[in-house]
Amino acid sequence: MVQYWRAAGVSYLRYSNLCADALRSALKPAAAKKGAAKTPFSMTKSTWEAGKPVARVQLEPAGMETAAVGK
Q1: What's the chain's Rg over C-alpha atoms?
Q2: CB-CB contact of 71 with 55 (8 Å)
Q3: Which residues lie closer than 8 Å to 39 by C-beta, 6 or more apart?
Q4: Is the pLDDT of residue 68 over 50?
Q5: With contact defined as beta carbons under 8 Å apart, do 17 and 5 qualify?
Q6: Under 8 Å CB-to-CB from 15, ≥6 apart: which residues?
Q7: Can you tell which superkingdom this protein's organism belongs to (predicted)?
Q8: Contact of 13 with 40, CB cutoff 8 Å
Q9: Contact, 44 vs 56, CB < 8 A?
Q10: CA-to-CA distance for 11 and 13, rounded, in angstroms?
Q11: What is the mean pLDDT of residues 58-70?
Q12: Whole-number mean pLDDT of the chain?
């Protein structure tokens, strides 16, 4: 069985951020203040060769482009 996020053509990180945004928008005002204080999640993907990082890519929150960090 294929996961729905994969069938929709999005990454798991993007799917997770979309779900978190939907949850925060559904919260009551008192709880929304606590949820709004949290910053979006991001990850860095590294490619390694011979025990050293060769390239890094910053994976941005949902809806944003990926950008190369450097070599």
Answers
A1: 16
A2: yes
A3: none
A4: no
A5: no
A6: 5, 8, 62
A7: Eukaryota
A8: no
A9: yes
A10: 5
A11: 56
A12: 75
Please report which confidence band the pLDDT of residue 66 belongs to, taking 50, 70 and 90 as the band edges. Answer: very low
Q: What is the pLDDT of residues 13-38, one digit of tens each?
A: 888 888 888 887 887 887 776 766 66
Q: What is d(CA 10, CA 15) in angstroms, rounded to the nearest whole number?
A: 7
**Three-state DSSP class for residue 59:** strand
| CB neighbour list of residue 65: distance below 8 Å, 6 or more residues apart | none
- pLDDT tens for 51-62 read 888 888 887 765
8-36 in b/e form (b: 16+ CB < 10 A) is eebeebbbebbebeeeeeeeeeeeeeeee
Pairing of strands 43-49, 67-70: unpaired
Q: What is the largest CA-CA distance in the chain?
A: 51
